[in-house]
Structures are given as structure tokens and as C-alpha cells.
């Protein structure tokens, strides 16, 4: 009888503690780790979302850039952080591909995090130096295949979105190119603008302004349908490569063990942020759209991560590209 009374008392105390936590959270600023350099496409998305989430939470979210190793350094830092709701991670599709791409990870991708929700899925665009001679995407494919021994393809480093899209492109056309990895999207784009590299595949969040300015040439979007921001740009499906359809999705995570009250509150703040018209406009200018309220949930993000790990595993294994 005493034992049952003790258990009941512990349960009641836990419930009261949980309720008090939920009522008070957050009580101080939150750090959102972005595992890539400042100014890149994922950083741009993170800062837009963090600002609007801060307003809803009543506490500021500070964005901290922890770049390196294709995003795994920043993700690893969050995996080891105190699970108190005050350190979170905004990561892109690399969260899924790293599970296969890296032989040794400092964390278990599926089990080291709690899920908050999906943020957006950014389409990618195949772009080339502005004087590239191809007239359309089919012509582009023919020309790069014919010049495979002399042409080169840039990317922002192993595990970056541009690297993943590049692997998918090579797999789709069964052709290997000399690849030039950079330490970030910025320097890769700089050399593409200068004509030091021939082409790359990157997110609209990083290519839109250059395409509009005519400083690079766009050949195809990786989205299922044509982009509203570039209605005249054909899709990879229209160009004969439906298997290359891909979006660089972003999600928010917290360390494993973070109280459910915190992840639920963060998820609600994320939903509020993504429903804001200013966010929709800002995302639209970058060629993407916010996730829906149903997608900005822990369950939706968990399902997405699991399915994307399964999708990319055979692509990476076929390419035989791994990182230590």
C-alpha cells in the first residue's frame, strides 16, 4: 500500500513538474545550430524562420553556424547538447544522406534527436557558366557527356546539396565528371561566375539572383512542376530525366531526451512562422514555399527522414563515394 502511495506521489510530482516546465518554456534565448557557413542557402532559410519563431516564443533564437564535414559537425554538436529545449538544429537533406555517406558518424541519425518539424523543400536548378553553348537541357546533357573528359562540375563539398544533386545527375545519365569540391556554396558560385568551373546543381535559394541577373545560365529545375519564379525553365522530367526530381528539404531537430513539452512548443512556433505571409513572400523570392502545418510536425519530419535515408542509400553506394 505504501509502495503504491509512493508511486502515485512520484507520478503526481512528475506531472506537476512537466506542467510547470510547459508553462514556463522558454525562459531564455534558444540557440539554433545551422551546420553550414553563414550566407549559404540553409543559413538563409534558418534566419528567416528563427526571426519569426522568436516572435511567437517570446524569446530570441540565435543562429549559430557550425560548418564542416558536410553538416555532421554541427549535427553532432546538437546531438551531444543538453536536452533542455534550448539548443536545436536546422538541417537539410544531408541529415538523411550522412547516414550512408559517412562511414563513422558521432551520432545515430535516427535515434540521437527529437523531431520538431519540416520547414521547406527547396528545388534545385542545373546551372552553367553564362557562355555555355547548350540551348536546352537535352542539348546540355548531350554536350556534357561528349565533353566528360574535359568538363568539370562544382559542388560545395561532400554531403552538400550540390554534391548530392551532382551525384544524382551523374547516376541518371550514367556519366562521371571531374568534380571540384569547395568549402561552401559561396566560393563554388564565385568560380562558376568567373568561368573557372563549367556547371553545378544547386538550390534556388543560392542561384535565383544570379539566374535573374544573367550571370549564369539555367537549364532545368529538379522540381516535379515548373517553378513559379522561373515559368519558362523546363523541369528535369521534361528534359528526359524524371529520376532526377529532388528537393532539398529542411527540418528542425532537438537533442534526444528533450522534453515533449519543448518540442511541441517549438513545433507550434514553427507552424506559426511558416503561416506568416512575410515568410511566404521571402521564401517565394527564393524559389520555394513554406511547409504546411501538417508537415511542420514531429511525425512528418520523422517519416521524411526515414524515407529519405532509404532513398539515398543505394544512390550513394552505387557512386562509391564515402567520407571518413
UniProtKB/TrEMBL annotation:
SUPFAM superfamilies in alphabetical order: Periplasmic binding protein-like II
InterPro entries membership: BUG, Bug_dom1
Entry keyword ATP-binding: no
Coiled-coil annotated spans: none
Pfam families reported in the protein's UniProt record: TctC
Keywords per UniProt: Signal
Annotated family: Belongs to the UPF0065 (bug) family.
Name listed for the protein in its UniProt record: Tripartite tricarboxylate transporter substrate binding protein BugD
Source organism: Falsigemmobacter intermedius
